[in-house]
Design a protein that fits this description.
about 15% strand, 7-stranded parallel β-sheet
Length: about 400
């Protein structure tokens, strides 16, 4: 049994949640039994999900709706179940409550633990903790967690810079994220999706998908939109604590006829409609590590415009499979205008994005399964070790 531990899982949606869900979905197809441990969201029927989930007690996380603060130790029925599960290997996708629980189980059972470094945790902590000494203490605890893992994974080579900056000195493996968008693209599909989203004018559609938080440079993006000379329709998909400030800025800048706030979209099919309807994905965030949304856009033949220094810029060759510009309102807005002035080239860049950036989750998780088996053999120092879950063809 493989245990996947994370501090959120659908219906709470972010890139890490989508990653863990796709692991849980695809690993059984490669012979692995999987169980997910995650904070419970009230009202969710976990027995109806397409994978095995063990939820534990949680409370609302202040200022981070819909995230939950998981407290597994007070949930006696959960603790009985989780400690009674015969895990072979644990994979933690968070260094906090779920990750610490995975570490305790791994050390007690003497089984291997993999930890994936997904996020810029220091920025997350600094948002709520004003005291630098406390932040430093909490970050030492985060790095201590990764130091105790048997393997540390990162989703993109550039993420290593953040990992080293935080003080981690050990080894790491690069294991990419995938994409679960695989519909056939066509201009007809784009036209249909636009009509379904009430876009009837023949003008470019711009898109942002992600949490509405200041760390993602969302106010910078709105300031840039105000200086774009081309006509456009812009969709913001997502929610977060900065949503009200974003809407207020849109109104102050007179963009309310051009910008539409959609809110959170959990239905992946519905989300694909927004990608399919778009011409250009705008993502000026410096906060994200290997953001899935850039890959999702590319899967729908939509290139991204990102800023220099962002981890997302690592996979983009400017003008070939996407666009990169400096982080200034003037430069960003001028680049949008320049990109939209050549729709034929924009379409070619979108095709290249799909060909060079996107990998299917089915292929990624097959590699993950192979890595699990390799770690188990090395962990038990036996080249002839065969997992009871492994499929032999």
């Amino acid at each position: 049994m493989i245990g996947l531990f994370n501090d959120c899982f659908p219906p709470v949606m972010d890139g890490v949640s989508v990653t863990v869900h796709n692991y849980a979905k695809w690993l059984p197809r490669y012979g692995q039994k999987v169980c997910v441990a995650t904070p419970r969201v009230p009202g969710v029927d976990y027995s109806a999900m397409d994978c095995s989930v063990l939820p534990y007690f949680s409370l609302p996380m202040p200022f981070r709706k819909p995230y939950r603060l998981g407290i597994p130790l007070v949930d006696a029925p959960f603790m009985y179940k989780i400690w009674g599960t015969r895990f072979e290997l644990l994979h933690a996708h968070s260094p906090f409550s779920s990750g610490r629980l995975a570490l305790d189980i791994a050390r007690d059972r003497k089984i291997p633990l993999i930890a994936t470094f997904h996020s810029k945790y220091r920025q997350d902590i600094e948002r709520y903790v004003p005291n630098k000494l406390v932040v430093d203490m909490l970050m030492r605890r985060v790095i201590d967690f990764f130091n105790q893992a048997d393997e540390v994974w990162i989703p993109q080579p550039a993420v290593a810079d953040t990992l080293r900056e935080y003080g981690y000195k050990g080894n790491y493996e690069v294991v990419e994220n995938g994409c679960d968008f695989s519909v056939s693209y066509s201009l007809l599909a784009k036209d249909v999706c636009r009509r379904q989203l009430n876009v009837f004018e023949d003008k470019p559609v711009l898109l942002f998908v992600g949490q509405h938080i200041l760390e993602k440079n969302v106010l910078f993006l709105i300031d840039s939109l105000a200086k774009v000379k081309s006509d456009f329709t812009m969709f913001f998909v997502g929610d977060g604590y900065a949503a009200k400030a974003m809407k207020n800025k849109v109104n102050r800048l007179g963009l309310e006829k051009k910008v539409r706030f959609v809110g959170k979209v959990c239905d992946r099919g519905k989300l694909m409609q927004y990608y399919a309807a778009a011409d250009l994905f705008l993502f000026p965030s410096l906060y994200d590590n290997a953001p899935l949304v850039v890959r999702e856009a590319a899967a729908m033949h939509i290139p991204s415009l990102v800023v220099e220094g962002a981890t997302s810029a690592e996979v983009i060759r400017d003008g070939i499979n996407g666009y990169v510009t400096v982080q200034s309102v003037e430069a960003f807005s001028k680049r949008v205008d320049h990109i939209l002035s050549d729709r034929e080239l924009l379409e070619k860049v979108g095709l290249n994005a799909c060909d060079t950036i996107v990998r299917k989750w089915s292929n990624i998780v097959q590699e993950v399964s192979d890595r699990y088996e390799s770690l188990l053999r090395r962990y038990y120092n036996d080249v002839f070790y065969v997992s009871p879950n492994m499929v032999i063809s």
